[in-house]
Amino acid sequence: MRGRLLQKNSNTEAGSEHNLLEKLRRREPEGMHLFFERYAGYLTAVCSRYVPDQASVQDILQDALLQIFEAVPRFEYRGEGSLKAWAGRITANRALKWLRAQGRLRFVEDLPDLPEEEVADVQKVPPAVLQGFIKALPDGYRTVFNLVVFEQKSHKEIAALLGIKEDSSASQFFRARAALARQINQYLKEHE
Predict the structure, then answer these.
(1) Number of structural domains found in the chain
(2) Do the Cβ atoms of 39 and 81 come closer than 8 Å?
(3) Which end of the chain is less congested by CB atoms within 10 angstroms, N or C?
(4) pLDDT tens digit sequence for 78-89
């Protein structure tokens, strides 16, 4: 018990994000290892929101980590969680850059309106199934959906980021929601 208590206290002290940041700034291998151990799963999930195939996710993640480790001396620490959020933004931006380079971000302008489908209880859908539905969306829909839902960007910000019209961003989001609603409702019908 005493050993566990001592271990927990030393993990808490050594585990703060600020301490981790200082190790990264000193380019300590232990800091890089701890950063990877702590955030690799999260950063992989961020990247996977935008890029559906795992091999590309790993390549993008590697590029993002290199960029993070290179830029960390210029990072302005703003409290616990700011390093994680900053690393997540870098990873999302690397994924978007990859999508653009692959020519996979295609946005259809002036789509006719579709009736919005009501979604039943989303809480009844397992998270892995819901993630699969999101990954199956067309690249443009998925990208805008993720930027709105997970990155909390406005359509104005998304339009500037992706080089599209605000209306196109809103339309892509609307269509992504409609496609997800259909998939969720179909899933619930089949599993009730």
Answers:
(1) 2
(2) no
(3) N
(4) 999 999 999 999
The answer to whether residue 77 sits within a structural domain is: yes
Flag whether 106 is in a domain. no
- How far is Cα 164 from Cα 156, in angstroms, rounded to an integer? 9
Per the listing, tokens 């002290």 go with: 13
Tokens representing residue 85 in the block: 């959020």
Place of tokens 């390093």: 83
Are the C-beta atoms of 184 and 146 separated by less than 8 Å? Answer: no
76-144-142-100 Cα dihedral, nearest 10 degrees:
-70
pLDDT at 95 over 70: yes
- Domain residues for the domain of 183 are 122-190
Is the pLDDT at 111 greater than 60, yes or no? no
What's this model's pTM, rounded to 2 decimal places? Answer: 0.75
Q: Are 155 and 170 in contact (CB under 8 A)?
A: yes
Q: Angle at CA 131, nearest 5°, toward 61 and 171? A: 95
**Do 24 and 93 fall into the same domain?**
yes
Question: Do the Cβ atoms of 139 and 104 come closer than 8 Å?
Answer: yes
